[in-house]
Design goal:
The complex is a heterodimer of chains A (about 140) and B (about 140).
Chain A (H helix, E strand, L loop, with lengths): L1 H19 L4 H8 L8 H19 L21 H17 L3 H6 L5 H31 L1
Chain B lengths: L3 H23 L5 H10 L5 H21 L11 H17 L4 H9 L4 H24 L4
The chains are: A mainly alpha (about 140), B mainly alpha (about 140).
Chain lengths: ~140, ~140
């Protein structure tokens, strides 16, 4: 059951990314190109995606997931260096070529060699992240 | 060809439905960087995550010829840029513990401060990057 739900959720996510144009890097870079030919499509994608989730979060109140267990707890409203620094790095990479993790995966089957190279580099970055993240913590803890 | 915002909104709704199904069904937050990250760094190699990736990668590949045969990624041919961007996205999303799907879609809809701040920060970083590279240095 858990695996079937996972597969269906991944499939919906992937088709949504394809249809919305979010696997097209020119559209994504167009959204980020505020000082050029701005493309507002991504705002509609975000709004469309947030709507069902607004309902879903409401439905989690006093309920359990279908397969049992518990819903994930909401993170404490605390900001830290890792959240900000990590998001800056991510945004820079996103702007550079117009791919973020979801679309990079969804377009893997038709994105050519470049898409595969991006995915490999992204995986290398993901594996290296804990080492860099730990460096970030050090000065904060020492202070 | 309908206006592109209808495709954006429709595709967005499907993304949100996927996230809602993953949450209400499995009790999980649908974040692409978290799901892939856990698989590659070995922190969570569950079949659940593999099945998610199989749907995410396989279904668009199989359905693209039927739905949108003209869809392309238009990814830059500059492979150095692609590698740098991939490294930055991998590092950044794992350090910040989320990307457009986790912090953006799932976080904002929960009114999570961390999700909202992360989304504002990565969009701003992306806007500055595109502005500099496209309009100042002419690299992209």
């Amino acid at each position: 059951m858990r695996v079937v739900i996972s597969f269906l959720a991944g499939s919906l996510f992937g088709i949504g990314l394809l249809i919305s144009g979010m696997t097209d890097t020119t559209k994504v870079q167009g959204w980020l190109d505020l000082f050029g030919q701005w493309d507002p499509t991504l705002a509609f994608v975000m709004a469309g995606a947030i709507l069902p989730m607004l309902v879903a979060w409401r439905l989690t109140a006093n309920r359990r997931p279908l397969i049992g267990g518990r819903f994930p707890q909401k993170a404490a409203p605390e900001l830290d260096c890792q959240l900000i620094f990590g998001s800056v790095l991510f945004g820079m990479g996103w702007g550079l070529v117009g791919l973020c993790p979801g679309p990079a995966l969804a377009s893997l089957g038709y994105g050519g060699v470049g898409g595969i190279v991006f995915l490999i580099a992204m995986i290398v970055g993901m594996v290296a992240a804990p080492t860099l993240g730990a460096q970030l913590d050090r000065p904060a803890n020492a202070a | 060809m309908q206006p592109e915002w209808i495709w954006g909104l429709g595709g967005g709704l499907l993304i949100g439905l996927g996230a809602a199904l993953y949450l209400l069904g499995n009790g999980r937050i649908m974040g692409a960087s978290g799901i892939l990250g856990g698989l590659v760094d070995g922190s969570d190699r569950s079949l659940e995550r593999l099945a998610f990736l199989a749907g995410l990668i396989g279904v668009p590949f199989l359905l693209r010829p039927l739905l949108l045969p003209a869809a392309q990624t238009h990814l830059t041919g500059n492979i150095t840029l692609v590698i740098i961007a991939g490294l930055l996205v991998g590092l950044g999303t794992r350090i910040a513990n989320g990307c457009t799907s986790g912090h953006g879609v799932c976080g904002i809809s929960r009114f999570s401060l961390r999700g909202i701040v992360a989304t504002i920060v990565y969009i701003m970083a992306g806007v500055v990057t595109v502005a500099l590279l496209r309009h100042v240095w002419g690299l992209i």
